[in-house]
Design brief:
48% of the residues lie in helices and 14% in strands. The strands form two sheets. An eight-stranded parallel β-barrel has the order 1-2-3-4-5-8-9-10, surrounded by ten helices. A two-stranded antiparallel sheet has the order 6-7. The longest helix is centred in the C-terminal third of the chain and has 24 residues. The radius of gyration is 19 Å and the shape is globular. The protein starts with 6 loop residues before the first helix and ends in a 6-residue tail after the last helix.
Length: 318
């Protein structure tokens, strides 16, 4: 087993018409749930860390948890920085990328989507040159997803679909390895308003796929916000009215096209929180964290297995 880049993963996914799940990790139980599910499903996996997760758990703890997961499962894994540079100025953004490259990450994302095209290209190229010289791959973003996730906070009126006319110039000038695009997904658990029909712009994806043949595309903000778990949260003291996500059949369609990486975070949080709330009501006399975290870990594991089988299509690929 080894920490690997996503290069071979994406080449196989593109050819096989499936996607790799990039699951956000914050603690030991989530790492265990994801990697045990990947082992049982014989699926490649990407563990990704946000700026918020690095602040919460500290980088050393997270990298050591991933090392432990590789030892425990015997799987190769990619360790990816999610939304590097979000909310930072260009020099700060580069330093964050540099820190993760030097700290052992095998893949990083530089998010310059809030800048002009020229500024995004300049920042991304700088990060690519540094990372590639050290054997690390880079993801970048064109277009703006709405929603809130850690350092990312984009109002709905400021969201922008990716312009297919810009993708060839961006990829050529930056040398980036994969590209996150905006086609209607959004961050968080409240992706659509009540009564609003969830829709992805597959026409944009098709145009980008035509312009960038065999190039790996990434979808952020792709949690489905399963309604049975929303009900479970609300029935156990939570307040998540009108939480709506991306239908899983749309994600599966994207995975059969050029999308090689699908990010999943909110669904993990939803199941973890719903499980703990439910457990507290089922077992009000219990106070040992190992009891309710064991229950939550098991449910997150089942969620990840479901995503691998039915959304990503990545079962039995290793």
């Amino acid at each position: 087993m080894a920490l690997v880049t996503t290069k071979d993963m994406f080449a196989k996914a593109y050819a096989g018409k499936y996607a790799i799940g990039a699951f956000n990790v914050n603690n030991m139980e989530i790492v265990q749930a994801i990697t045990e599910a990947a082992l049982e499903e014989k699926s490649p996996v990407i563990l990704q860390v946000s700026a918020g997760a690095r602040k919460y758990a500290k980088p050393t703890y997270l990298t050591k948890l991933v090392e432990a997961a590789m030892l425990d499962t015997g799987l190769d894994m990619a360790l990816h920085l999610d939304h590097g540079g979000a909310g930072l100025n260009p020099d700060q953004a580069f330093e964050e990328i540099k820190s993760c490259v030097d700290g052992g990450f095998s893949s990083v994302m530089i998010d310059g989507s809030h800048y002009s095209l020229a500024e995004n290209i300049e920042l991304t190229k700088r990060c690519v040159e540094y990372a590639h010289a050290r054997g690390v791959v880079v993801e970048a973003e064109l277009g703006k997803l709405s929603g809130i996730e850690d350092a990312v906070n984009v109002a709905e009126e400021d969201a922008q679909f990716t312009d297919p006319n810009e993708v060839e110039e961006f990829v050529t000038k930056t040398g980036v390895d994969s590209l996150a695009i905006a086609i209607g997904t959004s961050h968080g658990a409240f992706k659509f308003k009540p009564g609003q029909e969830p829709r992805l712009r597959f026409d944009i994806l098709e145009d980008i796929q035509r312009r960038l043949p065999n190039f790996p595309i990434v979808l952020h903000g792709a949690s489905s916000v399963m309604q049975d778990w929303v009900v479970k949260v609300n029935n156990n003291g939570g307040k998540m009215p009108d939480a709506i996500g991306i239908p899983e059949d749309m994600l599966r369609q994207a995975a059969a096209m050029a999308v090689c990486k699908i990010n999943i975070d909110s669904d993990l949080r939803l199941v973890m929180t719903g499980s703990i709330r439910e457990y507290f009501n089922m077992k009000p006399d219990h106070f040992d964290p190992r009891q309710y975290l064991t229950y939550a870990r098991a449910n997150v594991k089942e969620l990840v297995k479901h995503k691998i089988r039915n959304v990503l299509g990545s079962s039995n690929r290793i």
